Amino acid sequence: MTGDLVTSTQAAANRAKSRLVSSLREPAFAERVTPPSARPRLAALGEPAAEDTADVLLGIALDELRREDPSLRVIADDDAGSSCCRIVREYKIDVELGPLQIAYREALVGSGKHTLAVDRKIGGARQQVKVTMSAKNMRGVAADKSAESAANLSHLHPRNLAAIRQGVHTALLHGPKLGCPMVDVQVCLHWFEVGRGTSDSVVSATVVQCLRKVFEEAEAMLLEPVMLLQVVCPESHSARVLADLTRRRADILAINIRARNKVIDSITPLSELLGYSSTLRSLSSGLASFTMEFHSNRQMSPHDEEKAVKSVTGF
Question: Which helix (H) or strand (E) is 287 found in, with range?
């Protein structure tokens, strides 16, 4: 629970584990302290020794921490046969920690249109493709319905169409600003020519190159993930919590009273919530708690976008 002290030193952790192992040798105690989330892991071990049971119970702490603080990421190392990160050094499980990576998205500011022709020999075979494509801020894939384009595209072979769609999918995975996936982009095919014997991979690659030019012409903006955040804290600490949320660019939706606590609902950028659980404990003397879930991707101000680009690229 928020506010509980888990351990203060390595020696204290070792003593706690030793006491836990001794107590787990009593079946009644083991049944009482084993949470439901640990039972599948223990069942997979068959008849685990007390030491193995203790390791599983201590590892469950990481799952609880992840539920409390989504900025904590745990990756299992299958080669080492481990199911959790190192919580104390004696487990000798390697863990690599890096800065939190925010899942930004990109959207187009305007629209663009480009024609790209490819004519080259690869492995002795001539590869010829010519495409004209455009894109704008709208969902979906479309085809130009003007008389000239409709006549050109009416003979489009299903195999070529599949290659074009694959190229569009690949292009949308990397935007022009930070290489983030693109959202709410409508791509339109205006013209398509392909030479006999041209491979599907060349068609897809040509579409990708063409769309990259289109995206550069249309320009892109960053969208950041924002979270629906709910904080429950004593009224005596609510002013400090609210002031901190304001500094984190939170939009306060509602403040309600629940028993002797205040419930603060807000929409807050995920990038501002790194390490929030520790800050909240400090602000509330360990008496507050919070939950959050993904709300949407939101356009950033020029200043915040500049900061995000510098954070990711370093300049």
Answer: none
Tokens 């190192």 belong to 86
Q: Tell me the pTM.
A: 0.64
CATH 3.30.70.240 in the chain: give the residue spans: 224-313
Instruction: Note the CATH number of domain 106-218.
Output: 3.30.230.10
Q: Are 224 and 217 in contact (CB under 8 A)?
A: no
- Which residue has tokens 């800065």? 99
Give pLDDT tens digits along the chain (315 positions): 445 556 656 677 778 788 888 888 888 888 888 877 788 888 888 788 888 888 888 777 666 666 666 555 555 444 433 335 444 344 444 555 556 678 899 999 999 999 999 999 888 889 999 999 999 988 766 777 788 888 888 888 999 999 999 999 999 999 999 999 999 999 999 999 999 989 999 999 999 999 999 999 999 999 999 999 999 999 999 999 999 999 999 999 999 998 889 999 999 999 999 889 889 999 999 899 999 999 999 999 999 999 988 888 877
* Angle at the Cα of 157 from the Cα atoms of 152 and 160, rounded to 5 degrees: 100
Alpha carbons within 13 angstroms on the beta-carbon side of residue 263 total 8
Here the tokens at position 97 are: 């920690």
CATH (one of 3.30.565.10, 3.60.15.10, 3.40.50.150, 3.30.70.240) for 224-313:
3.30.70.240
Q: Cβ(143)–Cβ(149) under 8 Å?
A: yes
